[in-house]
Input
Amino acid sequence: MKLYTYDNFIKPNKKTVVALGNFDGVHKGHQQLIKLAVSKAKEKGLLSFAYIFERHPENVLSGRIVTPEITSNVIKAKYMEEMGLDCLFFDRFDAKTASLEPESFGKSILYNKLNAAAVVCGFHYHFGSGGSGDVGLLKELCSKFNIEVYVLPPVTQNHIVISSSIIRSLIVEGKMEEAESFMGHPYVLRAEITFGKKLGRTMGFPTVNQFFDDRGIIPLHGVYVTTVKVQDKVYGGVTNVGIRPTVDRGRINAETHLLDFEGDLYGEIAEVSFLHRLRGEIKFSDLNHLKAQIDKDVSAARAYLSCQKQI
Output
């Protein structure tokens, strides 16, 4: 898959089928949309393309994080490549983009820039200044340039329309199984492993420490069963999300004990998949009580992973 940004974009010399949206979470609805774009492109002998803004427009316009991201751009790209997408373009969203009228979006972006022969979008897709363009206007504008429009109807599960906003709510409530059921994959923290205080090592439970991206969503504080992909291997894990109240009440981070692993991973990039919340974050009276609870957490994690056959 070819990956483009604003700085290195080159207009495709072949006609494209463009998937439009933000794709945060790359949930089951997004997956159907991408697969539709890929299948239409193959059917017509064209390139399948996804057009996404590098940053969420709501966060840019507000100047702060009002819509935390479920998936980083790296993770989005990974999932889309796995679905067979040919090209992915993370465009810049700034004041100029925000002021672009729907008519200009249709001509300058879809027709001139992306060389679209067809576009695919969700039923609630909006575009242009202030989100003033809807699916009806998109069809009208695209007809002027002989661009076909395919609109994906709502994708539901248990009579609920799958959406990124619902998934965000589930993650901040620690309901990881429910979030995964809507996404079709777990919530993933992908970040560099940083130096910690090595306190876990002294208790017999060495941990790796990671910080959440400033733009990313943070699960409800507590202890989770996880799997950890690092150095092309996958390990079971027990991950604490929070401020470590027994130790130092520091910056919120994810501190993970990898099951059946020994070694040094500082500086490596790890992908931690959150599967199940075991309990809330607790302040213990001393380190002995903390160690006893970690013993229980590790046993519970092993039992959960064994049942789920995650590793």
About this structure: The chain has two domains: 2-161, 186-308. The chain has ten helices and 14 strands. The mean pLDDT is 92.
